[in-house]
Amino acid sequence: MNSYETDAMSREFAENGFTVVSFDALADIYVINTCTVTAVADQKSRKMIRRAHRTNPAAVIVAAGCFVSTKQDDKDRLPINLIVTNEQKGELLFLVMRYISESDSCEKDIVPPQTSAVENFTPDYPLTPTPSPRTRAYIKIQDGCNQYCAYCIVPFVRGQERSRSKAEIIAEAKELIAVGFREIVLIGINLSAYGRDLSMSEALLSLLDEMTKIKGLLRVRLGSLEPGLITADFARRMAANEKVCPHFHISLQSGCDETLVRMNRHYTAGDYMEKVAMLRLAYEEIYGNDCYPALTTDIMVGFPGETDDEFRQTEDFVRAVGFAEIHVFQYSRRPGTAAAKMESHVTATVKKERTRRLHSLGETMAAEYRHRFVGRTVKAILEERKTIAGMAYWLGYTDEYIRVAVADTELLGEVSQGTVITASIIGQFGGELLGKNDGKRYRDVMGAIPAGI
Ligand code: SF4
């Protein structure tokens, strides 16, 4: 989400007469879009603010976003000229311009802004097609969260749930596809809450139905989902829509019911497993064993009071699900959250060891998941050409978000970034599948070869 918003900020500045340079270059204004999701994120935010000040002590340092939207004790001691909270992000350019005009700290030729507010951030994508189009674009469809999980600072810094209108999202998607993007990833702070504030029922499903009708769009991927969103009907509709990637990132956090209650996560491990079964069944009913959706998740280790036994329950549960990938996070105390006041905080050494164990389990499961594709044919959108161990490869991602590498020598016909190929998988290498281009051109669900492929 922060990357998306940072792109949008760059675009606003660029469109209003500023030259956007790399963060390490000498600049008149530095904008640090901060994060506070963990203590490490806080630390990185402080570091970037100080780094910008060191690069040019005369520059205007603007700190925006989550870290500066919370009550950080040391915020006043940081070299910040202007704080822009999350609620003010839409007015960032206006606030920066006002700061500059009211202070003498910047004597540069700054063109006055043509807009004073950004209702919705849209990222800095090229407005005309380029010879090598980027392949995957993100669209923010929702912001804020009302869930208040005990460990999470996000509802305090991002505010109440709010959704963008379907019409606006579809218009943005069409624009992105028109400039060459083939895949759209829908993101939100709590994507599963999309439409709740607009009293729209089945809002996400209806958005997906309309979006996947857009000509030229090859696939839509969903960002992180909450288990409560998944129903048998949702699973069936996802499986039936060939443009929706069979890749679902469903937040788990813990596989132990007691821990989940303390976390204020409103489901049990059993509920979660039911959702997993619904998704797998829906795909199996349509595609048999040929399509095995990728299930990925986030797990938090060391939540206050997490005993060895509770952690083992999580480990066993993760193994039983057989995730395609897991992201492991260590709990970190966020002042103001319910968990910060809890007792029995887990030591750093124990958290580290639990992280190591889950990482190792995650790697094993990911390799097992990838192995399912050996001997099968996959579709991949090519993204970049790289030299690995002295050999040139084209790398791309499958619908399940597995990286596929096809050696240049194995590719038939001309390819470039954005080309869609089908590849026979001959094995795996590190974290990637190794493929052989089978010479066939990918046909979309209507049987047509998409333009430009
Ligand atoms: S659902 Fe929970 S973890 Fe996710 S943003 Fe909301 S409060 Fe945080």
Furnish the topology, listing elements before pairings.
Elements: H1 2-15, E1 29-34, H2 39-55, E2 60-65, H3 66-69, E3 82-84, H4 92-102, E4 136-143, H5 154-158, E5 162-163, H6 166-178, E6 183-188, H7 203-211, E7 219-222, H8 232-240, E8 247-249, H9 257-262, H10 269-287, E9 294-301, H11 308-321, E10 325-330, H12 348-371, E11 377-388, E12 391-398, E13 403-407, E14 420-429, E15 432-441
Parallel strand pairs: 1-2, 2-3, 4-6, 6-7, 8-9, 9-10, 13-15
Antiparallel strand pairs: 4-5, 11-12, 11-14, 12-13, 14-15
Helix pairs in contact: 8-10, 11-12
Residues 145, 147-149, 152, 154-155, 189-190 line the site of iron/sulfur cluster.
Brief write-up:
This protein is α/β, with parallel strands linked by helices. The chain has helices at residues 2-15, 39-55, 66-69, 92-102, 154-158, 166-178, 203-211, 232-240, 257-262, 269-287, 308-321, 348-371, and strands spanning 29-34, 60-65, 82-84, 136-143, 162-163, 183-188, 219-222, 247-249, 294-301, 325-330, 377-388, 391-398, 403-407, 420-429, 432-441. The chain is globular, with a radius of gyration of 23 Å.
Q: What does this 3D model show about the protein?
A:
The chain is built from twelve helices and 15 strands. The protein folds into three domains: 2-102, 3-Layer(aba) Sandwich (Rossmann fold), CATH 3.40.50; 136-371, tm_1862 like domain (pyruvate-formate lyase- activating enzyme, Alpha-Beta Horseshoe); 377-441, OB fold (Dihydrolipoamide Acetyltransferase, E2P), CATH 2.40.50. Helix 8 packs parallel to helix 10 (269-287) and helix 11 packs parallel to helix 12 (348-371). The chain is α/β, with parallel strands linked by helices and 453 residues long. The strands form four sheets. Strands 11-12-13-15-14 form a five-stranded mixed beta barrel. It has a four-stranded mixed β-sheet with strand order 5-4-6-7. The radius of gyration is 23 Å and the shape is globular. Residues 145, 147-149, 152, 154-155, 189-190 line the site of iron/sulfur cluster (SF4).
